[in-house]
Amino acid sequence: MKFNALIPELYVIDFGKSLDFYTKTLEFKLEYQRDNPKFAFISHQGSQIMIQQDDDDEEWHNAKAEYPYGRGLNLEIKTDNIEKIIENLKQHNYPLKRGLQESSYNTIDGVKKQKEILVMDPSGYLLRFAEKK
C-alpha cells in the first residue's frame, strides 16, 4: 500500500460507532486495525484517514476535545459515485448536514465543478464528499 503524504488522524468519541459509520455506511475500506489503543487506517478511492479512540493524551491534543470535534475543518473526500453515498446514508437513517449541491471553484487550472454533500461523522467531523462534474 502506498501512503499519502498527508493522512489526517481523527480522534473519535466512540471508536466502534465511528468504525461502523466509515466502513459500513460510507463503505471505506479497512486497511488495518490495532486494539491498544483502538485505531484503524481506512481508505476510500485514494483518500486515507486514521481514526483512534480519544484518550485525553495531552501530548497529542491542543486542548480538551469537545463535540463537535474538528471545528473549523472540513475534509474533502473525492468519490466517483456521490449518489451511492447519499443512498447509503439514507439506508442507515444518517442525516446529511447539507444535501446535494453543485459547486464551482476557481483554481490555478481554471474552474473546477463538482457535486458535493456535507455530512458530520459521529464525532462531529465535517466530511465533504465531492464528485467531479
Written description of the protein model:
- There is one protein chain.
- The protein has helices at 15-25, 82-91; strands at residues 9-12, 29-34, 39-44, 47-53, 74-78, 98-107, 110-120, 126-132.
- The protein is an alpha/beta fold and 133 residues long.
- The protein has a single domain (9-55, 73-132), classed as 2,3-Dihydroxybiphenyl 1,2-Dioxygenase, domain 1.
- The strands form two sheets. It has a four-stranded mixed sheet with strand order 1-4-3-2, covered by helices on one side.
- Strand 7 (110-120) and strand 8 (126-132) form a beta hairpin.
- The longest helix has 11 residues, at 15-25.
- It is globular, with a radius of gyration of 15 Å.
- The model has no long low-confidence stretch (mean pLDDT 95).
Separation of the first and last Cα atoms:
28 Å
Number of E-state strands: 8
Report the average pLDDT across residues: 95
CATH architecture: Roll
Tell me what portion of residues adopts beta-strand conformation: 35-45%
Ranges where pLDDT stays below 50 over 5 or more residues in a row are none
Domain module tally = 1
CATH topology annotation: 2,3-Dihydroxybiphenyl 1,2-Dioxygenase, domain 1
Radius of gyration: 15 Å
Overall geometry comes to globular
Order of neighbouring strands in the sheet with most strands:
1-4-3-2
Secondary-structure element string: EHEEEEHEEE
The CATH class is identified as: Alpha Beta
Overall structural class, as computed from helix and strand content, comes to alpha/beta
CATH homologous superfamily caption: 2,3-Dihydroxybiphenyl 1,2-Dioxygenase, domain 1
Share of helical residues: 10-25%
Could you describe the largest sheet, including whether it forms a barrel?
A: 4 strands, mixed
